């Protein structure tokens, strides 16, 4: 019998033992579903988290004065503390970077502020941040209502503010905060915008507890010490991040007038390390998922081998008749191997469909968008099906091929 005839014979045998074949294929499909589903879910979650990290600044870096925020001792020696980055230096850096990247300048004013409006007031844990025109974009804060600061407001240092969701709920529970006045740190501000709800971020409330004011306005607020300006630079192209980091380092050295041969007076902290940690974590989880799927498939292969052994025993007389009519041992072996492979592929096809659906279901559950078709894991799953069919069917097929035709014809 040639190849196509073996496939037809496999389907005839499957049809004659339909219930047993369906149960066996279901065992295989569960193993493939576990394998493909887990790997697809990991890829889906990684894709969703990668987009989240990108929106949180995975394609960006921050520049701060070296040792200014972390005055630690190393080897018993006090680390040198360099001067804070001034407003003029931050502006010069932003102007010189130009269109090479998106630069956002901000300054933390206070993290324990009480905001008032009429007779209402918030808890004294609101944070006030001063930012420029790129602050919302760099921080991935979205406006729910109102507008951003105008160029005139940014340049003049107007008393305008954008508030978070928690501040709106506390002060204006039944009306829009846009156009209303709030009081904080001894000054009155006109609310021109409201931020979308972001939820808690590391216990800090995220954007919900934030009052954003223009950068120059923040510089005029009462304080006990000079402001430390934070510079964050982002690029839409992650492949451009290394080049932009080098450019930013050279630019800041010139702005800070660091002498040739002297160490940088500032630190550049890239946040793409989040993506690297995600890759490492997803790789370990992927190995664990593969092991779970492999163990499940091992049980399926044992069940399939048992079914094929029973099939050989039941069809002993049929094997004798085929050999008496001229079928060779090789043809008998191919027939049973093909039957095992077909059963595995039928179960594997169902398992792949269920696995892709399960993986994308997890992606939908975690809030990811789109539909992921993992062609690599689909191909791997089908190849594993063929391998399981060969491994499970080889011994029963070899046993069938070695049967003596005379003894087989006598079998009842």
Automatic annotation (TrEMBL):
Predominant place of localization: membrane
Localization in the cell: Cell membrane
TM spans (from-to): 21-42, 287-312, 340-366, 372-395
Record keywords, A-Z: Cell membrane, Membrane, Transmembrane, Transmembrane helix
Entry-linked InterPro entries: ABC3_permease_C (IPR003838), MacB_PCD (IPR025857), Macrolide_Exporter_MacB (IPR050250)
Membrane topology designation: Multi-pass membrane protein
Molecular functions per Gene Ontology: transmembrane transporter activity
UniProt-listed Pfam families: FtsX, MacB_PCD
PANTHER family linked to this entry: ABC TRANSPORTER PERMEASE YTRF (PTHR30572:SF4), MEMBRANE COMPONENT OF TRANSPORTER-RELATED (PTHR30572)
Protein name: ABC transporter permease
Phylogenetic classification of the source organism: Bacteria, Pseudomonadati, Bacteroidota, Cytophagia, Cytophagales
């Amino acid at each position: 019998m040639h190849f196509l005839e073996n496939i037809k014979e496999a389907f005839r045998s499957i049809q004659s033992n339909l219930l047993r074949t369906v149960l066996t294929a279901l065992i295989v499909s569960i193993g493939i579903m576990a394998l493909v589903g887990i790997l697809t879910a990991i890829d889906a979650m990684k894709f969703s988290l990668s987009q989240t990290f990108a929106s949180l600044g995975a394609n960006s870096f921050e520049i701060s004065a070296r040792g200014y925020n972390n005055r630690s001792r190393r080897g018993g020696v006090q680390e040198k503390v360099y001067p804070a980055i001034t407003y003029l230096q931050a502006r010069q850096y932003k102007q010189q970077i130009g269109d090479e990247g998106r630069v956002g300048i901000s300054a933390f004013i206070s993290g324990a502020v009480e905001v008032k409006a009429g007779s209402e007031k918030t808890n004294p844990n609101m944070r006030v941040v001063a930012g420029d025109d790129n602050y919302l974009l760099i921080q991935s804060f979205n406006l729910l209502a109102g507008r951003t600061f105008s160029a005139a407001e940014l340049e003049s240092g107007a008393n305008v503010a954008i508030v978070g969701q928690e501040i709106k709920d506390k002060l204006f529970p039944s009306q829009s905060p846009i156009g209303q006045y709030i009081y904080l740190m001894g000054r009155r501000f006109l609310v021109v915008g409201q931020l979308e709800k972001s939820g808690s971020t590391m216990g800090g409330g995220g954007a919900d507890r934030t009052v954003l004011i223009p950068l120059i306005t923040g510089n005029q607020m009462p304080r006990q010490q000079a402001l430390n300006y934070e510079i964050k630079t982002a690029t839409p192209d992650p492949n451009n991040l290394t080049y932009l980091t080098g450019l930013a380092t050279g630019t800041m050295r010139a702005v800070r007038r660091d002498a040739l041969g002297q160490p940088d007076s500032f630190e550049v902290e890239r946040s793409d390390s989040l993506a690297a940690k995600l890759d490492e974590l997803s790789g370990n989880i992927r190995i664990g998922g593969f092991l779970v799927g492999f163990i499940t498939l091992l049980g399926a292969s044992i069940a399939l081998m048992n079914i094929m052994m029973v099939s050989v025993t039941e069809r002993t007389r049929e094997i004798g008749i085929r050999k008496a009519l001229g079928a060779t041992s090789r043809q008998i072996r191919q027939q049973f191997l093909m039957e095992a492979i077909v059963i595995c592929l039928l179960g594997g096809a169902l398992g792949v469909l269920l696995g892709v659906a399960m993986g994308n279901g997890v992606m939908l559950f975690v809030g990811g968008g789109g539909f992921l078709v993992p062609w690599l894991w689909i191909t791997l799953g089908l190849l594993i099906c063929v391998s399981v069919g060969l491994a499970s069917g080889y011994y029963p097929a070899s046993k069938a091929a070695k049967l003596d035709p005379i003894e087989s014809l006598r079998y009842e």
